[in-house]
Design brief:
Length: 134
């Protein structure tokens, strides 16, 4: 594989980041966004109680870890808005394949109390949003 070739299918030498399944969103009231390894959020959308986040990052040799965190600080609006924070740990992966994955997160822990819907953003990027109806 060349350094510029897009790589999306798992192979024995893939990024060792197999399907992670449905992951929880960690709620930390005093959370402050931390610097993470580079990645790009391509798209986000909701299906039922699942937030699906399409990400792209460089790698291919080590396991990559993603963590979603909320401080549950909703913006007062109709519907309420919540920024979620996605962190990426590349584990010093120096390979340069372009990896695309869809990460899935369980939204039940971040529902707005007494609400029926909310608007979600990731890492303060207002150009991409997902409506969560529950």
């Amino acid at each position: 594989m060349t350094d510029t070739q897009e790589h999306t299918d798992p192979t024995p030498n893939d990024d060792k980041n197999q399907d992670m399944g449905l992951m929880p969103i960690q709620v930390k009231k005093e959370y402050q966004y931390n610097e993470t390894d580079p990645f790009t959020v391509l798209d986000l959308r909701c299906s039922g109680d699942t937030l699906m986040v399409d990400v792209e990052y460089g790698g291919g040799c080590e396991k990559h870890e993603f963590t979603m965190v909320s401080n549950n600080l909703w913006l007062k609006s109709l519907p309420p808005q919540l920024t979620l924070y996605l962190e990426h740990k590349a584990n010093n992966d120096m390979c340069r394949a372009l990896i695309r994955k869809t990460l899935q997160f369980d939204l039940k822990e971040v529902r707005f109390p007494g609400g029926k819907e909310m608007r979600l953003f990731v890492n303060n990027d207002r150009s991409k949003e997902a409506m969560y109806r529950y």
